[in-house]
Structure of Metallo-beta-lactamase domain-containing protein:
Amino acid sequence: MSSNLLSVYLFIAGLVIHMSLCYSELPPADDNLNIYALPVGQGDCTVIQCPKTSTDNGKGDVTIIDAGSNKKRFKDEAFHNYLREANIKYVILTHPHNDHFNLIDPILEGHGESLHIYHSCDRQRYVQRYKHRNKFVEALNSYQSSKIEYCLGATSCNTKITLCDSVSLTVIASELGGCGKHPNEDSIVSKITYNGVSALFPGDLEGSNKKINAFLQGAGAEIKADIYRLAHHGAYAETGSKQCNRRDLLRAVGASYYFSSSGLHEGYRHPRCKLYREIRDNDYTDLQVDYHPYTCYEDDGTKEPHTTTTNKPIYVTTLEENETRKDYVIRFAIKKDGTIVPSITPFNGASKRRQEF
């Protein structure tokens, strides 16, 4: 073999090794329903992975609930790479805020035309808020899409999607704000159910006292769930025009496990430590899990996050450990018998600034 040819082979081998070390990938499908929360900073991206079938040896069928980040310092290719071998069947865009949909282009790149996108409010609302408008219009036009109009309660919403055998997604509310000036109020609220276990995904749901009261009354017991993705990245407000994750809502959900993304050092200071303490110090859940770190922000305007260690089942995607910010994937593995197994694993290559593992 010539020295030049050997050099080419070594270069290619090194490139493959570099890529495998730099980027995380969705694990192969297994016998569980897996719920993954990706570390997109101030934003949301949840990946629902169906249990493997007898004919599936790969990443399996996947549904995505939101895919966006407030700051475009996250590497598009990291999220594309994470999902590149998965069969994405459905995408739920909860509402037209950039931090819930501006990563959708790289994620959907290369996926089949059978994919179906569900969204609240008119598509133009998303286009207006997206810098690369042509790309987003092209993405929406390339796939089937459905607008979920104003509804409250599963019967009113009349949208139940079979994600795979024994796994369904039911819409509980949408467009409660009338697609006006406050997109958070228009969030699609959905619940996934599998063998008696459920997970609630409220997007950035928040609103006035009147709106949240109406939501609780209209949705009723339908929002009860075992796993709760904290609304609006873990924001917490009991009063005012942007009430979020109120005590009575937490009681109505009655979850055993809680999680959110994290916008470390990005102005919004989510999640809030006050919400963490509310869940920790009261009897929302009596479960205890392995001790793990949790990073949050105080309400006193302190810019630096606070990191603690807890054995309560509440998780966040980005942590500050020894003054170093690190990104994690949160996973809830739901077994056939209904057992829920939480875990956190490092996510490599997400950010352009943060330390990589």
